[in-house]
Every structure is written in structure tokens, then in C-alpha cells.
Design a protein that fits this description.
The structure holds two protein chains of two kinds.
Chain A: H1 2-27, E1 52-56, H2 63-79, E2 83-86, H3 94-106, E3 111-114, H4 123-131, E4 135-139, E5 150-153, H5 157-172, E6 177-183, H6 189-202, E7 210-217, H7 222-235, E8 239-244, H8 247-258, E9 267-270, H9 274-282, E10 288-291, H10 294-309, E11 320-322, E12 328-330, E13 336-338, E14 343-346
Parallel strand pairs in A: 1-2, 1-3, 3-4, 4-5, 5-13, 6-7, 6-8, 8-9
Antiparallel strand pairs in A: 10-14, 11-12
Helix pairs in contact in A: 2-10, 3-4, 5-6, 7-8
Chain B: H1 11-43, H2 50-75, H3 83-99, H4 105-128, H5 134-153, H6 163-169, H7 181-198, H8 200-210, H9 212-217, H10 222-247, H11 259-269, H12 281-300, H13 305-336
Helix pairs in contact in B: 1-12, 2-7, 2-8, 2-10, 2-11, 2-12, 3-4, 3-5, 3-10, 4-5, 4-10, 6-10, 7-8, 11-12, 11-13
Classes of the chains: A alpha/beta, B mainly alpha.
Domain Periplasmic binding protein (chain A): 53-311
GO biological process, one term (chain A): rhamnose transmembrane transport
Pfam families (chain A): Peripla_BP_4
Chain lengths: 355, 345
């Protein structure tokens, strides 16, 4: 009996200690504000050294974000002598991302480069981080424009949608037929924008022979995407083509097709990385697929963040800055910076790339 | 005390020993909590700051809300794995009602709580009326309720709630940085604590966990009690859902996906036996706080997500295995000494 009592009191004491710590913490002076961004030299047009730049992808362990962050952002940050880091949740959920934004804000990060899992759910945390002095650059997937300083658009939705429809149309051939879309999560901002534009593209007379019969979601999970691809072919026996505008989805669908009787009969295109798609392009499962260079995307995002944190730009329309080897960029409407046109990979050029 | 010449090592003695182990487990949790807070505050920049505590509190509130009834459920030897799906379904129904023009927060909260209670009642009915194992039933409703959440909102997110609601949900207690919702959690913790530890109902819950058959003979209505426990769990998950929606300003079908594991982990780490009949609410609350602090502190210390998952997974294993191994060792140690002096009481 006595042991039981002691345990109870001990826990109560622990809770009290924790609460007291929290309460006394509040009584202490305000945290030091982030260092003022006004540089000493007025006319200097270079990015400040020593900026802490953190990349927060949708999830870690994703080859796409490893390419954008560790092969692009890291290089850029090293060029302007900043401090690079990549952090993030192991599952692509907005609530987990909020927790990491809070952490980065507490660590006094100068620039948070984030790919949003939900355009609204991480807004509050980003605003809190900005109030604490951080600049926020979104890449890959945007938040509400009011929650960040700039968005690096990998390619315009129109550009991607047009290229995806063009690639599937070429692969399926002039007779057209039924096609389906295998997307990532049902709520991914970028995916939904592209799908909407693809529908616009399909409504054009030159694409009248292509008929979109289904849009399914693989949640950027390899196994789920694989099963969804399998399900599509079971449900639509006349299916002629699949578009999967996500790296995880297109690789999983390609793996399924290449091992099935549909190989070469059902066409597949999408947004994929050369390393994941190489085998399927070479064995004829996939004729072509598109992507931008994610390393360039991360590289541009890092430079944009550096320029923002150094006060070179504010993110308003018409701001101009130089992003290292990529050259000069101009900030567009709503603080958007456009990377360029999507790039098409085929069996002829795929060996020139390694990411 | 009365003389007791012979004493068979029966149920009573074993229960006492188990209780002693539970007591020492609370001590372990206490030491761990103090260590994590102490070492964290000294070694990791930011742990001692008020903002850290604000963020930790915001993160643990939904887990704590669901862990309260879950403790009672697991003490009876049952489990409810559908809690995160109840949370998600409540979020989407709230979102859909808001889209339909229901702009009164009290009405939305009331509907959410009723819905949660109803979903919990479905679980309770299957478990008690049809005598099905709660593990199987709630794995089923885990998928069913999450599926219904996608039926309600599909791929949409409802995010245009008034700022007074969303800011209000996470507003700090005046003069502090800690959100006021923690007061609600504290009041509910006292209520659940009293029910479990200071009422005949609470004693009945332990009796059910130890031996449902025996509990039935002592006059406890096992089925009815369990049914209402599932209803309470549903309602509390719905309350967590309301908080989740407003805290993230976003009602989505995947809200709280996987949260049931965080809750069960905290309850087990808190010293509640997965087989029922043992464990206390104070330990569970300590475990909820401990896991929250540990996660956030390690994140601040630049520990990658993969390592974090391994650490929390290991903690869970330790919490399940630890008390059992301790009990086993004690048992062996006692057996090694043939002449055991009678305990002086």
C-alpha cells in the first residue's frame, strides 16, 4: 500500500516540477529577438554569411527531397557560406510538420524552406516562426501566400499539365482511349492544381480522344500506389494509359506494369526521377516521363531564402536577384519564383542524369 | 494484527506484489521525467524557454484527452484502437457542418461530442452485446470510421474557421505561455482519476481486468460498465478532434492518422498492464508528458526523425517488458529463499 502512495506522490511532484519550470520560464525576460536583418553595409548586394538555412521537406527518407535538399540546397548554402540543415517528419502529415516548424523557430533558424503537407494547417506555426524572425520560403508544395515570404514554383501548373497530357497522348497513340491518374495524397496542393489543369488540357479538341476515367490516390506510399495501379487495371480493362504526377506513384506503377501482362500495352508517364525510372525506361514499360531538376529547385530555394534574409529582396512582385549558377530570377505575382519548363526524360538522355 | 500461521501464496499476495511493482514503475517514470527535463534544460538550448513548454503542451493535449478514458478501458482488459479515426471523423463532420452554415461553436462542439459518443457506443455494443474481442472490433471501426471521414470530406480540407476560434483554442492562460486547454485536461484528469481510484466503479474496473468472471459474481454489471467506457472514449476522442480542428485550423479526413499508437504507447509506458487489472492514471499522465518532452527536446537537439521513432519504439517495448521482467525476477528471488519471514504489518 505504501509503495503505491509513494509512487502517486512522486508522479504528482514530477508534474509539479514540470509545470513550475514552465511557469518560471515565462516570468523570465523575453527571448532575444532574431538578429536585425539590416546589414551594416548599405550597398552590399551579396547574401550574408553564416545564415542558418533549414530545409523541411514533406517527409524525410524521400529520394526526391534528398535530391532537392542535399544535392541542391546544400550546395547553394555552401556557396554563400551559410549553415545548412535538413529536418522533418518520417511520415507526411501536417501535424508532424508543425512540430518541426516550432522546433526550427526555437533554434533561431534564419530561413525555413518548407514543402507544405497542408496549405492551411501549418500556417499558424509558420506565422509564429516569422514573428520570431525567420524568413519562410515554400518549395514543391505551397502554403497560403500570406503565410510565407516566397514560393519557388518548380514549373507552372499549365506547363506540367500540358507536358503530361502531351506525353501520354504520344505514348498512347493517335487512337486515344481511357486514361487514369494515380496521384499522391488527396489533399496535396500541387497535385490537385496539376490535375485540375490536366482536365482543362483534356477538354481541348486535340485531346478529345483521351478520356479520363479515374483519379486514385497512392498517398505517396509505395505499397499503396502499387495496389492502386493494380486496382485501376482490374477495374478498367480498356485502360490505355496512366499518368502519375508523383515520383513515388510513377515508380510503383512502373514496377507493377513491368511485371504484368500489361507491359508495353498500357502506357505510363508521370513525374519521376531518372534513378527510379531508369530500369523501366530501358525495358520499354515507360517511353518518357517528365520532371524538373529537383536539385535546381532546392538550389534556387536556398538562394531565394538567402536573399530574403539578407534584405536583398522582400518577396514583392518585380524583385530581382541572382541565384548562383542558375542566373537571374524575378519574383512574380504573389511572391512566386518560377524555376522553368519541365524536362522530358527518354531512353536517349536518361543516362546523363543521376538523381 | 491477527496471527496468521499459514498463508498460501495466493491471488492476494500476488496482487500486492504487482502493485508494488507498479509503484516502483511510477518512481522510474518520475526519475526519467526529472532527468529528461533537467538534462534537456542544461544541454539543449531552448528546452528551458517558455515557448518550448507551450509547444509541448499543445502537442500533448489531444493525446492526454484520449489517454484518460483509454487508461480505464485498458485497466478492464479491453482496448480501443478506433480513437484516432473517431477524431478524424468528428473533424470532417464538424467541417461539413461549418460548410453547410452552422456557425455556432457550442452547437458544433455539442454535435461533435454526441457523434463521438455514438461512435463509441457502436464499439461498446459490439464488444458487450455480441461479446466480440475489443481488439478485433476496434481495428474494424478504425478502418470504418476513417473511411467514413473520407466519405464526408473526400480530398477537401475545411480551413476557413474564424480566427477567434482557431486562436482561441490555443490561447495561453493570461500571464503564461501555456494554452488554457490544459485546464480542461487537468479538470478531466481529476474526474477520471477520482472515478478510477476513489469509487466502487473504479475498483470494479480493476476487478474486471483481473478476472471478469469473478467481477461478475461480485455484482458488477461488467457489460454495462464497459459499454459506457467505450462511449466515454468516443466522446473524449471527439473532444480531442474539436481541439485538433481548431489548433491546426484545418478539418481533413486524415486528421490524427496514427494517433491511437501514441495514446496506447503513453498508457502502456504509464504502467498500465496491457492484460488489464493494473496501472494508475498518474503514471499515464506522467508518461504522456514524458513522451511529449522527450520528442520535442530530441527534435531541438537535431535528432533525426528515424532515430526518434526508434527511441519511442524502444521505450514502448521497455514499458511492456520492464514491469513483467521485474515481477518475474522478484518471484524467482523469493523462491530462492525457502523460509520467508511473514511480513510485519
Amino acid at each position: 500500500m505504501s509503495a503505491r502512495m509513494r509512487g502517486g506522490r512522486a508522479v504528482a511532484l514530477a508534474m509539479l516540477t514540470a509545470l513550475t519550470l514552465a511557469a518560471t520560464g515565462c516570468a523570465s525576460a523575453e527571448e532575444p529577438a532574431a538578429p536585425a536583418q539590416t546589414g551594416a553595409s548599405g550597398g552590399a548586394k551579396t547574401i550574408k554569411e553564416g545564415l542558418k538555412i533549414a530545409f523541411l521537406p514533406k517527409q524525410v527518407n524521400n529520394p526526391y527531397f534528398d535530391a532537392s535538399d542535399n544535392k541542391g540546397g546544400k550546395v547553394a548554402v555552401a556557396e554563400f557560406k551559410g549553415v545548412y540543415s535538413q529536418t522533418g517528419p518520417s511520415e507526411a502529415s501536417p501535424s508532424a510538420q508543425v512540430s518541426y516548424i516550432n522546433t526550427l523557430s526555437q533554434q533561431g533558424t534564419d530561413v525555413i524552406v518548407v514543402s507544405a503537407n497542408d496549405k492551411d494547417a501549418i500556417c499558424g506555426a509558420l506565422q509564429e516562426a516569422r514573428a520570431a524572425g525567420a524568413k519562410v520560403v515554400t518549395y514543391d508544395s505551397d502554403t497560403n501566400p500570406s503565410c510565407r515570404d516566397a514560393f519557388i514554383n518548380q514549373a507552372s501548373a499549365e506547363g506540367i499539365a500540358a507536358s503530361q497530357i502531351k506525353l501520354i497522348s504520344e505514348a498512347v497513340g493517335p487512337d486515344g482511349g481511357e486514361i487514369a491518374i494515380l496521384s499522391a495524397t488527396a489533399n496535396a496542393t500541387n497535385q490537385n492544381a496539376w490535375i485540375a489543369m490536366m482536365k482543362t488540357e483534356l477538354a481541348k479538341p486535340e485531346n478529345s480522344k483521351l478520356k479520363l476515367v479515374a483519379t486514385v490516390y497512392g498517398d505517396d506510399d509505395d505499397q499503396k500506389s502499387f495496389q492502386e495501379a493494380q486496382g485501376l487495371l482490374a477495374k478498367y480493362p480498356n485502360l490505355k494509359g496512366i499518368i502519375s504526377p508523383t515520383t513515388v506513384g510513377v515508380a510503383a506503377a512502373a514496377r507493377y506494369l513491368s511485371g504484368s501482362a500489361y507491359k508495353g500495352k498500357v502506357q505510363l508517364t508521370g513525374l519521376g526521377t531518372p534513378n527510379q525510372m531508369r530500369a523501366y525506361v530501358k525495358d520499354g514499360t515507360v517511353k518518357s516521363f517528365a520532371l524538373w531538376n529537383p536539385s535546381d529547385l532546392g538550389y534556387l530555394a536556398a538562394y531565394t531564402g538567402g536573399a530574403l534574409a539578407s534584405g536583398l529582396i522582400t518577396g514583392k512582385e518585380g524583385d530581382k536577384f541572382t541565384a548562383g549558377k542558375l542566373g537571374e530570377y524575378t519574383v512574380g505575382k504573389d511572391g512566386t519564383v518560377l524555376l522553368g519548363d519541365p524536362f522530358v526524360f527518354t531512353k536517349d538522355n536518361i543516362d546523363d542524369f543521376d538523381f | 494484527m491477527a496471527e496468521r500461521a499459514t498463508r498460501a501464496p495466493g491471488r492476494g499476495e500476488r496482487a500486492t506484489r504487482l502493485r508494488a511493482v507498479a509503484g516502483s514503475w511510477d518512481a522510474v517514470l518520475l526519475v526519467a521525467l526529472v532527468l529528461v527535463v533537467g538534462v534537456g534544460a542544461l544541454a539543449i538550448e531552448g528546452v528551458a524557454s517558455p515557448r518550448f513548454w507551450r509547444f509541448v503542451t499543445l502537442e500533448v493535449i489531444p493525446i492526454a484527452l484520449i489517454a484518460l478514458p483509454m487508461t480505464l478501458v485498458i485497466v478492464t482488459g479491453e482496448i480501443d484502437l478506433s480513437v484516432a479515426s473517431v477524431l478524424g471523423l468528428t473533424c470532417t463532420v464538424m467541417g461539413q457542418l461549418w460548410l453547410w452554415g452552422v456557425t455556432s461553436l457550442p452547437v458544433l462542439v455539442a454535435v461533435a461530442l454526441l457523434l463521438g459518443a455514438l461512435l463509441g457506443a457502436v464499439n461498446g455494443l459490439f464488444v458487450t452485446a455480441f461479446g466480440l474481442p475489443s481488439l478485433a472490433v476496434t481495428i474494424g471501426t478504425l478502418a470504418l470510421y476513417r473511411g467514413l471521414a473520407y466519405v464526408v470530406l473526400g480530398d477537401r480540407a475545411v480551413a476557413d474557421y474564424p480566427p477567434e476560434w482557431t486562436m482561441g483554442a490555443i490561447a495561453p492562460i493570461p500571464g503564461l505561455t501555456i494554452p488554457w486547454m490544459i485546464i480542461v485536461v487537468a479538470v478531466l484528469a481529476v474526474v477520471f482519476g477520482l472515478v478510477l481510484h476513489a469509487t466502487p466503479i473504479g475498483r470494479g474496473l480493476y476487478a474486471m481486468g483481473n478476472n471478469a468472471e469473478a467481477a461478475r459474481f461480485t455484482g458488477i454489471d461488467v457489460a454495462r460498465t464497459k459499454f459506457w467506457l467505450f462511449v466515454a472514449t468516443g466522446a473524449m476522442s471527439a473532444l480531442a478532434g474539436v481541439f485538433w480542428t481548431l489548433r491546426y485550423a484545418s478539418a481533413r479526413a486524415d486528421n490524427g492518422n496514427g494517433l491511437e499508437l501514441a495514446v496506447v504507447a503513453a498508457v502502456l509506458l504509464g504502467g498500465v498492464s496491457i492484460f488489464g487489472g493494473r496501472g494508475r492514471l498518474a503514471g499515464v499522465l506522467a508518461a504522456v508528458v514524458l513522451l511529449g518532452i522527450l520528442r520535442n527536446a530530441l527534435q531541438l537537439a537535431y535528432v533525426p526523425a528515424n532515430t526518434l521513432t526508434i527511441i519511442t519504439g524502444s521505450l514502448l517495448i521497455v514499458s511492456v517488458v520492464g514491469p513483467n521482467v521485474a515481477a518475474m525476477l522478484r518471484e524467482r528471488w523469493r523462491r530462492r529463499r525457502p523460509v520467508t519471514p511473514l511480513p510485519q504489518e
